[in-house]
Amino acid sequence: MEANLINNNHSKLETFSDEVFFEIFDRLSPSDLYKTFYGLNIRLNTILNDSRMRFRDNLSSLNSKQFHSYVQNILPQIIDRLISFTFGTYDTDEYQQVSLFLHKYSIDLSLFKHLRTLVIIKMTIADVQIVQSALVHLTNLVNIRLSVDSNDVDTASFVHIGNNLITGRKLKRVKMDMCARTIFENVTKSSNIEQLSIAWCEMQELTHLLQYSPYLCTLKATICGLNHVDTWTQKIHGSLSQKYSLRLNSLKLVVDSIRFDYLLLLLHELRQLRSLWLLLNHYEYMDADKWESLFQTSLVQLDQLDLTIALTKPFSSVNTPGQLLMLSTPNTACTKFNTKFWFDRGWRGKLDEYDHCVRLTVSNHAVPIQNTNRSHY
């Protein structure tokens, strides 16, 4: 009886089309698939090795023993059929997975010819160049996310990004968490990227990259510092909005060590913006009149605003180093962000004060300042 039941179930399983198996197997990891199904019968072996079969895998949670077994036994069978692949470990003290992958086993990334999504976690800066060289062969890539191990970075570290990384024909989304200054001067060809995230770069590097990103819609970045100010200032006027038809409509920036006037020059060029998120750390950014002028003349299409200015006490003057500002100044600034101009756009200013800092927030979600002396019944 039991033998007949097993045979009947086996018979029903054999009647499934290849496409049904593809759909089922798509939900399982390659390791589980090969360990569970490979060798059961010729039909399943054929399906697992079918050139139409596609795989997704993430090695980041594998321990050292599992990783070595995977690279030796599973990867060679599926390398040219993977469409999504993640490798590298968040805890590099345990073992250096990226180093083993690229150097001990010398896996050639260009063999992942059907890959659409590639995520590499905590590589070294030297490995970035190896990866870029391989990317030119991965013509199906849509998503890339790369990060560098902070243990491999010091204050003088930098990462050069070139055409190979960003100019893939199908590439749409790129995230670069390099933990070091990212340089784009070697980018000389336009990309099709629509979403971009950069851990940090200097202002002139960002604007250089924007010139070669005509389809970019969403940008997240940390920008710190601006070199060659006079040259940059001459180039920026009209260069983005007029020459390159920039489509950027959502911008999220953390800004450090950049004067307000230079930031305004950049924002004046981004006239298509509908959403703006900024984290700033200098008192000069509290000039409500300058912001109002920007929104009236250039960013007239802006709907969503989230502007945060965080200051550490005591407040120092940007224009006169060493000169301290009155502690009441942020309160005065906040009042100017709660006038008719701001209310009409649905934006409100709110001031939060702590022991060692204050935070001024102007956004669609901020609550206007409340008079704490009012009586409540």
Radius of gyration: 27 Å
Strand count, sense and barrel status of the largest sheet are:
12 strands, mixed
Mean pLDDT over all positions = 88
**Class from secondary-structure proportions:** alpha/beta
Strand order of the largest sheet: 1-2-3-4-6-8-9-10-11-12-14-13
The proportion of strand residues reads: 15-25%
General shape: elongated
Rounded to the nearest angstrom, the distance between the terminal CA atoms is 80 Å
Q: What share of residues is helical?
A: 25-40%
Number of strands: 14
Topology pattern, helix = H, strand = E: HHHHEHEHEHEEHEEEHEHEHEHEHHEE
The number of helices is 14
Unreliable residue runs: 1-9, 369-377
Fold and architecture overview:
This protein is of the alpha/beta class. Among the domains are: 1-53, no CATH class; 54-152, no CATH class. The chain has 14 helices and 14 strands. A twelve-stranded mixed beta sheet has the order 1-2-3-4-6-8-9-10-11-12-14-13. The protein has a two-stranded parallel sheet with strand order 5-7. The model is unreliable at 1-9 and 369-377 (pLDDT under 50).
